[in-house]
Amino acid sequence: MTLKYSRRLFLQSTGLGALAVTLNPGQAVFAQETIAADANALSTSVVPTVCAMCRARCPVQVTVQNGRVIRIEGNPASSLNGSKVCARGHAAIKLLYDPDRLKYPLKRVGERGEGKWKRISWQEALAAISYQFKKTLDADGADSLALLAGGPSSYYIKKLFAEKGIANIYDAALRNCDGIRNRAYAATFGFSPGDPPRLDYARAKCIVLIGCHMGENVQVPQLQSLLSSLQAGAELIVADPRYSSIAAKSSVYLPVKAGTDTALLLGWCHHLVAAGLYDKQWVAENVSGFAELEQHLEQYPVEKVAGITGIPAQDIVRTAELMASRAPATIIHPGGHLSWYGNDVQRVRAQAILTALLGGVGRPGGLQLPWNAALPDGVLDFAGPQAGNDVSFSALMEQMIAGRIKVVGCWGQNPFQNHPSIYKTIAAFKAADFVFCCDVLPGEASLYADIVLPEAVFLERHDILEVWSDLENPLVACRFPVVPPAFETREPYWIVKNLADQLDRNNSFFQDNGAAFLDSQLRKAGWFLGDLRLGGGIRRVHEEVAQQEVPPPVAYAAAPEATPESPPLVPGADAAMVQPDETPPGPAAAASPSLKVSFPTASGQVEVYSSAFAAQGLPPLPEYESTPEPPVGYVRLLYGRSPVHTLSSTMNNPWLNHEIAENEIWVHDSSAAAFGIRDGERVFLENQDGIRSCKSVKVKVTPGIRPDCSYLVHGYGCRSMHLKEGFDRGVSDTSLMTRSSKDPLSGVRGMRVNFVRFVKARGEG
Q: Which CATH code fits 106-172+381-474+483-524?
């Protein structure tokens, strides 16, 4: 299939206009409202902190005038984002002053889901939680409790649950994004690619994005690096069923058929090997299982892959040769959200194998090895992913429904929007004996909670240390409060410490508050929290701690095998084992006597053939598995991100809603004609199981999506009536996901296996 399009036509419709706005430093472009400065100001200060409006963790500085925040901008001392901050960062002001935010501890007085509460004291709220916690732990054991928690403020509550021996700790971001990616790369290289991935954009000559929506998922540090690379002349290849914002900047756009990405990757690998275009020296010195891979790839000749993916054979060949011509300075981006079709670890493994064939590991312009940087005591605790166990969300819901999990905590998560089968999630929360929730806003999870705790906004609290350990010179920053907590909100450390004290006075939360805890951590390194704040909020580790000497090549012990039951290797644990035998080669790589690298795998090499998977009865090499086709009259439902929203967490923000008021359903021109719907018309969406959207959505007719697909921005469709700005805004994609496909390696369920048809909304739009 060939898509005909004009790049200029899509600059506005795909969000690149908003993307450009989000990267500009200075005053935000929110048309109808600004925070005015007081002409008679008596007090003005600028406080460094770290943004928590998304996972990018951009260092920012906040201007406070007469006790009120009037401006948020990037911290110029930051090498990550500099003076730039995205729309969400600017709009944190409206989160801070949101009239709907939680103000006091609450106790449920109605039925679960009704959102009826009464105000109670902190003492009563924590006593109720500790009573249920202790009673259930003593009577039924640690497996009868669970925690759904994410974001920087969840560090302490995860620590408390873990110290009580509770293994049911679930973090949606770690599972749906990091978990799949880390397992795939650990099985291949023995280490994860990092978060954000350690990619040498500055020296890259070719970048490949596979369903990766950088630009719409605006994370300023990564996006700046990518755009700078393109400006310097790097080629960009984008494979995606939808012409995304970043596809508008691509050298080659491939409208790959949904669910066939693995076939495309294996087709690329086949051509590289069959044509002898792979990096022969690097593969010979560093890859184990190449003979098995070469034989396996015979199943994926380019002509066959063209028939599977809908990409012409000449385009598959052309893009494979473009990657090879720029190798090893070719980046195959590891991706972000990856739970798509149910065979996701193997698909990402194919990306890692393609990277290996191009020799793009530990060399300029490619995937970088974990840095062997010494982190000081106290700082190391915060490096790498925070706690979250290898548990399945679906399994947790089943155990709640069955009555085996009785007490559930929900901290900074919205399980009613970030997972399929919402109705099963509702049933699970109604079945639990006791649910408590801690959040900034009264979102959907709070509607089902017996006790609701009001957390301070990140601008009001000390949070954990933020550590960028994957940089050559690691950075440490802190989230400092810029104004005091409003109402009766409390910082996360205070909440967890006081809960821990009620559970057991003999606990690890010794300090009185978050600042004292952080200071005690930093003092292990000879640092002080006050010095960090006065120093602009950011500290380079190498200013105080020298990088460890690179050890001589040794025979490393075999790393633990990654299995569905064991967590993948992550930086901070085994990263120091990864060292090249000599300095990574530059442009004269061909003249190097050796390109050998020692990898922390069982073989000490890149394992394109996984013996560990084979021993478990799983395919040792990635295989393409077809996904069901849309039924007649339906199209596949795809979803993605908005450049001005962070999933459902920002849907109550009027500044951000001014930029993008609601989501639209993308439909290809030919499909719209076949279904008899027009651009701008409103329709209800009905899935293959007869579930219909709660309200209608506007149709966006466009050539920028395959005819067999439709697309919604995720995060809309909030059902909490307490969020006046966000309630019932747009349509929820997850409400239409009644089916999912379980990945056998990660246990994570792929969600792009649902289909919708269009039902005209009579009398609307």
A: 3.40.50.740
Q: H-type helices in 310-463, by residue range?
A: 313-326, 344-357, 393-401, 422-431
Q: How far is CA 576 from CA 190, 210, 599, 600, in A?
A: 12, 30, 10, 9
- Cα separation, 197 vs 687, whole angstroms: 35
Q: How many residues does the chain have?
A: 765
Query: For residues 754 and 693, what is the distance between their CA atoms, to the nearest angstrom?
Result: 13
SS3 80: coil
Give residue for tokens 């010794």. 510
pTM of the model: 0.88
Give the amino acid at 367. L
CA distance 351 to 608: 11
Identical fold between 7-96 and 635-760: no
- Find, among 550, 373, 577, 572, the residue nearest to 474 by Cα: 373
Comparing C-alpha atoms, which of 144, 108, 138 is closest to residue 125?
Answer: 108
Fold of 635-760: Barwin-like endoglucanases (2.40.40)
Pairing of strands 597-598, 579-580: antiparallel
Question: How far is 670 from 322, CA to CA, in rounded Å?
Answer: 32
CA-CA-CA-CA torsion sign (441, 445, 447, 448) = negative
In CATH, 193-372+550-615 is 3.60.150.10: no
DSSP E strand stretches across 554-657: 579-580, 597-598, 606-607, 635-640
What's the alpha-carbon Rg for the chain, to the nearest Å?
Answer: 25
Q: Which helix (H) or strand (E) holds 226?
A: helix 220-231
Tokens matching residue 573: 């644990």
- Rounded Cα distance between 748 and 394, Å, is 8
User: Is the Cβ–Cβ distance between 58 and 89 less than 8 Å?
Assistant: yes
Structure tokens at 394: 């679906």
pLDDT digits (tens, 9 = 90+) for 666-722: 999 999 999 999 999 999 999 999 999 999 999 999 999 999 999 999 999 999 999
Can you say how many angstroms the Cα of residue 749 is from the centroid of all Cα atoms in its chain? 15
CB 362 within 8 A of CB 328: no
Q: Which helix (H) or strand (E) holds 700?
A: strand 697-702
Handedness of CA 412, 415, 416, 417 (dihedral sign): positive
The span from the CA of 3 to the CA of 669, in Å, is: 11
Specify the amino acid at residue 405.
Answer: I
What residue ranges in 390-511 does DSSP mark as E strands? 407-411, 434-439, 451-454, 465-468, 475-478
Angle between helices 313-326 and 261-274 (to 10 degrees): 60
pLDDT tens, residue by residue, 249-293 = 999 999 999 999 999 999 999 999 999 999 999 999 999 999 999
Structure tokens at 752: 């792009």
| Whether CATH 2.20.25.90 fits 7-96 | yes
Three-state SS string across 247-314, please?
A: HHHCCEEECCCCCCHHHHHHHHHHHHHHCCCCCHHHHHHHEECHHHHHHHHHHCCHHHHHHHHCCCHH
Q: Are 240 and 321 in contact (CB under 8 A)?
A: no
Give domain limits for the chain. Answer: 7-96, 106-172+381-474+483-524, 193-372+550-615, 635-760
